[in-house]
Write a structure and sequence with these properties.
Keywords: ATP-binding, Cytoplasm, Kinase, Nucleotide-binding, Transferase
EC number: 2.7.4.25
Main location: cytoplasm
Domain Cytidylate kinase: 10-215
Bound molecules: adenosine-5'-diphosphate, cytidine-5'-diphosphate
Low-confidence stretches: none
Distance between the termini: 22 Å
Protein name: Cytidylate kinase
CATH architecture: 3-Layer(aba) Sandwich
Length: 220
């Protein structure tokens, strides 16, 4: 009897608000794959730290929070705020936090839920660390100001009226610098990733571009 084929993994990485989630959800639906937003795990740990009034930069506390983390902890939490994004990138610098969250991500990729034949994972280090053998790796990016504008519009639509565009831009710049500059699993395209610059593309165009790249790489 031949071995069952390994799960089909599509790795999607890139900086904040580049459109990773929008593209990944669509790819997962199209190919019938599971989807994991790995940023949600880091945001979850960041949220736990803030909700306990702990400093996200304290490595012992952050490691303990990551080890004990369960998705149930954030069932009713708003993790999509700039404060939680900042805390997420502060806990994400710490190697023991990354190690604790890596296990969950690798398991998800190795055995996608509901018997699905594979998964799309999005984050910062999927193609480089979490799933280095993924047959398809995309790195989604866009100009910083365009990304900040997208995030600002999203936050405004959710009623964060007091946020200025400049604050969101500054926040994204700092988070990008922290994510790209850290020692452990820095944000960067894998050597074999396809870079998709979404600055002037709408979501349909990004999807179409990704499909072309993926179909070229998948065994027919
Ligand atoms: N190609 C695009 N053009 C314009 N807006 C986009 C595009 N892709 C995503 N968006 C919007 O930008 C915001 C951030 O997208 P999202 O997919 O959440 O990014 P990420 O997962 O990289 O943080 C969302 O409001 C989304 O609707
Ligand atoms: N695989 C991942 C995913 C997220 N992260 C961290 O988690 C933060 C929040 O990730 P996110 O994907 O929710 O961020 P957005 O792109 O949605 O703004 C990032 O800024 C990173 O610091 C990471 O280090 N590695």
């Amino acid at each position: 009897m031949s071995d069952p084929s390994p799960p089909l993994i599509i790795a999607v990485d890139g900086p904040a608000a580049s459109g990773k989630g929008t593209l990944s959800r669509r790819l997962a639906a199209y190919y019938g794959l599971a989807y994991l937003d790995t940023g949600m795990l880091y945001r979850g740990v960041g949220w736990v730290m803030l909700s306990r009034q702990l400093d996200p930069r304290r490595v012992d506390d952050a490691e303990a929070a990551a080890r004990a983390f369960s998705l149930d902890d954030i069932a009713d939490a708003d993790i999509r705020t700039p404060d939680v994004g900042r805390a997420a990138s502060q806990v994400a610098v710490q190697p023991p936090v990354r190690a604790a969250l890596l296990t969950y991500q690798r398991r998800f990729a190795a055995a996608p839920p509901n018997g699905l034949r594979g998964a799309v994972l999005d984050g910062r280090d999927i193609g480089t660390v979490v799933c280095p053998d993924a047959p398809v790796k995309l790195y989604v990016t866009a100009d910083t100001e365009v990304r900040a504008h997208r995030r600002w519009s999203e936050l405004m639509a959710r009623d964060a009226r007091s946020l200025s565009f400049e604050n969101v831009l500054e926040d994204i710049r700092r988070r990008d610098a922290r994510d790209a500059g850290r020692e452990e699993a820095p944000m960067r395209p894998a050597a074999d990733a396809v870079i998709i610059d979404t600055t002037t593309l709408d979501p349909d165009e990004v999807f179409a571009r990704a499909l072309r790249e993926i179909d070229r790489r998948l065994p027919s």
